[in-house]
Amino acid sequence: MVHYRLYFLDDQGRIRHPLDIDCVDDLHAIAMVGDHCDGRRMELWQSGRKVESFDGVKPASKHLPPKAAVS
After folding, report:
1. Given this model, what pLDDT does residue 33 score?
2. Number of domains in the chain
3. pLDDT value for 40
4. H helices present in the chain, as ranges
5. Domain span at 39
6. 10 phi and psi angles, rounded to 5 deg
7. Is the per-residue pLDDT at 10 higher than 70?
8. Angle at 32 between CA 56 and CA 14, to 5 degrees
9. 42 within domain boundaries
């Protein structure tokens, strides 16, 4: 598992509060961001690397990992 931190930003771009997320990779972390979209700007970071910025809307489906096959 990889540790990520989702930062919720205010109107001036300052961090309001963080949320820690553990996922297997960037795509899964981005997909999890959708559960936290409520109109606020957000940034997803993994250590010192900025993974993605979000303008407060649910990430586009292009970011979502493919669904696992079910047998």
Report:
1. 87
2. 1
3. 84
4. 26-33
5. 2-60
6. -90, -175
7. yes
8. 40
9. yes
Q: 7: how many CB neighbours lie within 10 A of its CB?
A: 19
Indicate whether this model's pTM tops 0.85: no
Q: In what order do the strands lie in the sheet with 49-54?
A: 15-23, 2-9, 41-46, 49-54
Please classify residue 13 by burial: count the beta carbons closer than 10 Å to its beta carbon, then call 0-12 exposed, 13-18 middle and 19+ buried: exposed
Q: Rounded to whole angstroms, how far apart are CA atoms 59 and 29?
A: 11
Give 28-63 pLDDT, tens digit per residue: 999 888 888 778 899 999 999 999 999 866 665 444
- The predicted pLDDT at position 57 comes to 65
> Cβ(51)–Cβ(30) under 8 Å?
yes
Name the amino acid, one letter, at 41: R
